[in-house]
Amino acid sequence: MKKIINIIMGSVLLFSGLVNAHDYKNGNLHIDHPWSKQVPPTSAVAAAFFNIMNHGDEVDTLLSAKSPIAGKTELHAHIHEDGMMKMREVEKIDIPANSTRTLKPGSYHIMFFDLKQVPALGDRFPLTLHFEKAGRVEIEVAVEKATYKPEDQEKIEKEEHAGH
Ligand SMILES: [Cu+2]
Among residues 18, 112, 114, 136, which is most buried (max CB within 10 A)? Predict the structure, then answer.
């Protein structure tokens, strides 16, 4: 009987591990719940977003990203140009000392081109990040609904609106 309970407990733990937010630690960096917005099955592009906390006293820099799902993976930013928001490839993304850099829609993000495999809702796909100081960090990106917003982002947007 005890054995059966152990098996049940084990599968409960495994299941909760799959549905919970996931995070990664590497040296001074802490990456929280990497996610991607679900795209149509015919899409050639996708994007990934996450918070990177730098607990160190020195800046670290994201230099590149790579994923087996895409022919090409780029670091992107959104910029204002001629009164329009456009996205551009950037060489690097700084994570200032003792602060958090948020990659989110309309801001910095990781962009995937020439998708070899379009990630489906509920999937997780691998992403390798290369930082100047922390080096290589392997993470998995969870595919969320197109309407998904991280809790903290909703809070930030409410605060931004309150200021207007
Ligand atoms: Cu982009």
Answer: 112
Tokens of 81: 């140009």
Mean pLDDT in residue range 147-153:
77
Q: Read off the pTM.
A: 0.80
pLDDT, residue 95, reads: 97
Taken in order 159, 96, 46, 34, the sign of the CA dihedral is negative
CATH of domain 22-148: 2.60.40.1890
Residue with tokens 């204002």: 80
Report how far ligand 1's centroid is from the alpha carbon of 110 (Å): 7
Distance 23 CA to ligand 1 centre (A): 23
Closest CA relative to residue 87, chosen from 105, 100, 114, 113? 105
Backbone angles phi, psi at 99, to 5 degrees: -150, 180
Number of residues that this document lists for the chain: 164
77 C-alpha vs ligand 1 centroid, how far in Å?
7
